[in-house]
Specification:
Elements: H1 5-15, H2 29-39, H3 43-55, H4 69-84, H5 89-95, H6 106-117, H7 119-122, H8 127-130, E1 138-148, E2 164-165, E3 170-180, E4 186-194, H9 199-205, H10 208-211, E5 217-219, H11 231-236, E6 237-238, H12 246-266, H13 270-273, H14 283-299
Parallel strand pairs: 1-5, 5-6
Antiparallel strand pairs: 1-3, 2-3, 3-4
Helix pairs in contact: 1-3, 3-14, 4-6, 6-14
């Protein structure tokens, strides 16, 4: 079942209790805004994402029912869950006029995982481009970002410092994100990692440093710098440097600000901005599904500013 953005807009209005289900008439900016407030993305974004789910060669195991209106409704439920993060299943079920059983457990998480699985076609490391010796020197920006989660409970050991985020003074999980400097493309995500792990440690130990070709540089903030760095790190990291020219300094600052803009977009989704209270094992699926969705947004008219 393939749907146009207009179809997605109408069906989105029809299934959600807070919107008029007798949608008729033209597409308007107000209706699009109302749709986005419920589902987190525009009808164009969700139409493209649904098309890829229906046509991808990835082995998602979609059933006939999941490819129908019934499946599309659960696709919308998953997006509302990611964006609004209702406090309990009763609120989520009543919003879509379905029983609690249909919007929890595997019925819900299967759709979150399928959205996350689209990272295989959306978040790709451009090996050939980055290995081109005649290509740009500065290839990506990288940053670690934390997301609050419920703190671990233990009868005697009540504090886990490794899970503690100094950004929030709270338990959290850390993810590493790399974005192409010259395109609105996320090219690498890594995690979850313990929030107490330093961003530089994640970069060195979790694989990204080894993917950077010789002669290419990664734009980062000061937290990645150290006088004790190995020579390979000095060669690959483009840190803020007072000896840079004004032009280069401004370029690096814009790239870092651009990356923060992307991180901020992730936190438009309450499942990442609020304290996450579901199974820790599912947090990675939430994060990846939202990264994929924001990438679809950037591919469909909501680009972050150019460096």
């Amino acid at each position: 079942m393939l749907l146009s953005p207009q179809d997605v807009l109408k069906k989105g209005f029809h299934v959600y209790n807070g919107l008029p289900n007798n949608f008729v008439g033209p597409w308007t900016e107000r209706r699009t805004s109302e749709f986005k407030s419920i589902y987190g993305s525009s009808p164009v974004v969700l139409a493209n994402q649904w098309y890829d789910l229906m046509t991808t060669e990835l082995n998602l195991g979609l059933t006939k029912a999941e490819k129908s209106d019934k499946g599309f409704k659960m696709f919308l439920v998953a997006h509302h869950f990611l964006g609004a993060y209702p406090k309990n299943v009763k609120i989520l079920g009543s919003a879509f006029s379905v029983c609690d059983r249909l919007v929890q457990g595997e019925n819900l998480w299967r759709w979150v995982r399928m959205i996350a699985a689209l990272k295989a076609i959306k978040i790709i490391w451009p090996e050939e481009d980055y290995n081109n010796p005649n290509g740009p020197i500065y290839i990506i920006s990288v940053d670690g970002t934390d997301f609050k989660v419920w703190e671990k409970k233990h009868p005697t050991m009540t504090i886990d410092k490794g899970q503690y985020s100094h950004k929030f003074n709270h338990g959290a999980l850390k993810y590493e994100i790399a974005i192409d400097v010259y395109r609105c493309k996320v090219v690498w995500i890594s995690g979850p990692h313990r929030a107490g792990m330093h961003d530089k440690t994640v970069f060195v130990e979790k694989g990204l440093r080894n993917k950077i070709p010789p002669g290419k540089k990664v734009i980062t903030d000061r937290v990645y710098g150290s006088k004790k760095d190995a020579p390979v790190d000095h060669a690959k990291l483009a840190l803020p440097n007072p000896s840079d020219s004004k032009t280069l300094n401004n370029f690096k600052a814009r790239v870092r600000a651009r990356h923060e803009t992307f991180n901020g977009r992730l936190k438009f989704f309450k499942s990442l901005s609020d304290t996450y209270h579901h199974s820790a094992a599912n947090h990675v699926h939430v994060f990846e599904a939202i990264c994929v969705t924001v990438q679809y947004q950037m591919d469909n008219g909501s680009e972050i500013f150019a460096a």
